[in-house]
Amino acid sequence: MSRPQLGEILAQADREGWAVPAVNVEGCELAHTVIEVAEGARSPLLLQVTPATFAALGWQWHLAHLLDLCRRARVPAYLHLDHATAEADVELALDLGADMVMFDGSMHPLEENIARTRAMAELAHRHRRLVEGEVGHVGRQGEPPAWSRLTSPDEARGFVRATGVDILAVAVGTRHGQSPGEGGVRLEALAPLRQAAGVPLVLHGASGVDAAVLRAATRQGIAKVNVGTAVRAAFLEGFSTEHPTIRERLKAAAGRVRPVVLERIEAMGAKDRAREGVPS
Length: 280
Ligand code: 13P
Ligand code: ZN
What we know:
CATH superfamily: Aldolase class I
CATH architecture: Alpha-Beta Barrel
CATH topology: TIM Barrel
Number of helices: 11
Structural class: alpha/beta
Order of helices and strands: HEHEHHEHEHEHEHEHEHH
Number of domains: 1
Strand order of the largest sheet: 1-2-3-4-5-6-7-8
Helix content: 40-55%
Bound molecules: 1,3-dihydroxyacetonephosphate, zinc ion
Shape: globular
Distance between the termini: 10 Å
């Protein structure tokens, strides 16, 4: 039986009020662990990787390896390029077969963001792949807070119409790199944004968001939730223990990661959403 299309799963999540977990992975151990958790929870999954990680580990073989892991997974699992700010990285990821790409022009003036994102959306669609864009700006640790800009409904509407993106990252109060409980979401902003955008929304910086708030956000138009910091923190805590060998340390790290990923999957309502008919 065939794998469901990623676009169908995102549309289903959007319709039904839950979100597809998009987990940042740096390296094979983390990728394996995250896939195992998704399989155990019967959740669809997006493994997402930044251009910096691909550059460090080797684009060709790392991307091919992750795609292979996704194709063999017992749940629908897909590979996404996260936060590409250079066109060349989007082109490379598409050539190498990534299922979805994000072009992040949110640091640039709106007109430039639109023009560059539109070109990347056209390219991704020629490859029959999905594309994510960002309007407004979700800040990150180390950036001046003033750089963060909430997304307005007018901006969301105009950006999606002008660029043709399939899914839209919006700034609604989160920041990248927050600890659990530290983050907030302006829930009241979501329904108007979803309506104006006309496409499903993405929540970045979800590590710090409470489970109840995350669940509420997925009921108001968030159909993809990005989680990185909480997973990396768990891995590092587990790895730097007293275990003498690398293998034992990796095992301990995976043990710390599992409950964190499972908790996020449950919080976004993705548990048991993997459709029947996925190869096992
Ligand atoms: P956190 O690292 O804050 O969870 O954000 C993840 C993210 O948005 C990746 O694009
Ligand atoms: Zn992000």
